[in-house]
């Protein structure tokens, strides 16, 4: 497929925020600055055989995931998505039908989350497929991952371990466990949950992050170098299918839950007096922040697991 044909596929996307200015059609997009609040900007790369394999992703699933992982970054700042750009490096031999199916899936995702495709670029890849999405969002009050205080409660929204368990199923070509595979192939950014919590707390301080690189890594980000936490692992939300798969295949489910990543669940730390109201919104208490810079993950009948090394997905570690 020629570049002009790809651009025509992108140009056909609907606009949800025309007040932002000119999108696709010139050398650069022209955006109107917001009257108030802050802009959010995030970028994620998906590289074939590093982050995914085409043999188990449909084009539409890959498009959905590429946009969803960026949306999760905006959710982690309690923001609203506005617009995105798309960069594609396409390998030789990629069928036109695959490209059309990818854009069809991307359009469905853009329509669902009401975000405008405003530009991008495409080129040829000498190896695998590369997808780069940058997404623009807006928030009246950015929620950072670095504002936790000792005594805060740690709350979670979403579940942990399912995406890594789903990846195990896909890599091993296991039948069944469709719910786990779905978690890996079509993750759901928790935009509404983040906004609900932010609206509840208003101007009150709280920390927020998504668990894209795993529960353990997210806890390290919340605590930073000066603080620690006590976590009750039995309170961490986990789908029953994760335990079932681990039992059936002799795997350690805690490896998926703590280190797996790609669940795009949310973690928050907030003052204890807000916890009960947050729980009514679907958040769940799983621990608390401590003054001692030690991350203890506790399980009944076991010694605490202390996280003192980088945890979760490492972007410069081995490929999948």
Detailed description of the structure:
With about 325 residues, this protein is an alpha+beta fold. The protein has 2 domains: about 5-140, PurM-like, N-terminal domain (60s Ribosomal Protein L30, Chain: A, 2-Layer Sandwich), CATH 3.30.1330.10; about 155-305, PurM-like C-terminal domain (Phosphoribosyl-aminoimidazole Synthetase, Chain A, domain 2, Alpha-Beta Complex), CATH 3.90.650. Helix content is about 35%, strand content about 25%. The chain is built from 10 helices and 11 strands. The chain has helices spanning about 5-10, 60-75, 95-115, 160-170, 180-185, 190-200, 215-225, 240-250, 255-260, 275-280; strands spanning about 40-45, 80-90, 115-125, 130-140, 155, 205-210, 230, 265-270, 285-290, 295-300, 305. The strands form 2 sheets. Strands 6-8-5-9-7-10-11 form a 7-stranded mixed beta sheet, with helices on both faces. The protein starts with a helix and ends in a 13-residue tail after the last strand.
Task: Label this structure with key terms.
2 domains; 11 strands; seven-stranded mixed sheet; 60s Ribosomal Protein L30, Chain: A; Phosphoribosyl-aminoimidazole Synthetase, Chain A, domain 2; alpha+beta; 320 residues; 33% helix; four-stranded mixed sheet
Give a short summary of the structure.
This protein has helices spanning 3-11, 59-75, 96-113, 162-171, 178-185, 191-201, 215-223, 240-249, 253-259, 275-280; strands spanning 38-47, 80-91, 116-125, 130-139, 153-157, 206-210, 228-232, 266-270, 284-290, 295-298, 305-307.
